[in-house]
Amino acid sequence: PTPTPTPHPHPPHTGLSQLATNFQRTSKAVSGPLGILRVGADVARNDSAGLFQFAALINLNLAIVNSLPLPALDGGYLVFLILEAVRGRKLDETVEKTVMASGLLLLTSLGMFLILRDAVSLGGQLTRLL
Hints:
With 130 residues, the chain is an all-alpha fold. It contains six helices and no strands. The chain is elongated, with a radius of gyration of 19 Å.
């Protein structure tokens, strides 16, 4: 018999709303690429069928995050398109480039922070294993 996948206990939209309303607690649960790989490896070891569900959740989360109205993401470009439609003319190119560059810097910094935090966490786990 094929095992039926169990629904994720916290859908992505719930996680985003919790991040906004309870940042202190929820931000500790946010992982970068290393943490996601660790969880994916755990899922693959314990439930190979669950790996497909895990991959689907990762893709869904990426789609939701990408649609947020932040500079350098698709949602940020959509905000610029709406602003241009409301104004009836294009925004100044230097303003658009500056806002997008600052958003890219912010997202890159966040990514680096999450990678470092995950590396420290994984390093601590490796030390306990040895």
